[in-house]
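Usage

Read records sequentially. Each one opens with the input sequence:
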Amino acid sequence: MILMNNDLILPKDLVIKLVDYMQKNPDVGIASPKMYFAPGYEFHKDRYKKSEQGKVLWYSGGMVDWKNIYSSHRG
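and closes with the structure output:
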């Protein structure tokens, strides 16, 4: 299953890369790519230079603590 919003801009080979990763790492339960803000739509965009637009991470992975029902994100 793939969960995504309707405002994404995806690389053409995204699904191939995710499936390949999952096949090579059978102990992994969920895979997600790094996600960046669209250029000019960065959160706190006044903190970034024009040359940094489109390079600001929105999400780059995380961990789930199933014992305490808590997740933490990087990015």
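Summary fields computed downstream for this record:
- The longest helix spans residues 14-24.
- The helical segments are 14-24.
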